[in-house]
Amino acid sequence: MLNSSLNIHRHTSFISLHNPTNQVRLLPKGIILGTTTIPTLSVKTDPEIDYLLAQKNICNLIQPITNSGQKDKVKRVLDKHVKLFDTTKPTIVINVKPYAIKTLDYLPPSS
């Protein structure tokens, strides 16, 4: 099977089988049709980031989420910004615009 046509989610995958004959064939329950390996992604890690601490902080943040699907989605988003959750070093923000409060345009009082 082509790699691109096999989707694995939560250690589960579904495949379609084609029977080219006119005879009905039944597969016994639990039959192993094949095996697959999942290649590990080569992720470039930043030596400046404490990934263990960042993952601990992310897990603490998503712990109250009870829906596992939502929890996975939120974790994926937070993992993209893992540097924000490394609290070992302060991060200095630059190019921040000062706050401005927009007030309604009124005419000055007449004297």
Describe the structure.
This protein has helices at 51-62, 68-80. The protein is elongated. It has one domain (3-85). The mean pLDDT is 78. The chain is mainly alpha-helical and 111 residues long. The chain starts with 50 loop residues before the first helix and ends in a 31-residue tail after the last helix. The longest helix has 13 residues, at 68-80. Helix content is 23%, strand content 0%. It has two helices and no strands.
How is the topology of this model organized?
Layout: H1 51-62, H2 68-80
Helix pairs in contact: 1-2
Low-confidence stretches: none
Order of helices and strands: HH
Q: Which structural class should the secondary elements be placed in?
A: mainly alpha
Q: Largest beta sheet, briefly?
A: none
Query: What oligomeric state best describes the polypeptide chains here?
Result: single chain
How much β-strand is present in the residues?
A: under 5%
Task: Describe, in short, the structure shown.
This protein is mostly helical. Helix content is 23%, strand content 0%.
Q: What would the keywords be for this entry?
A:
111 residues, mainly alpha
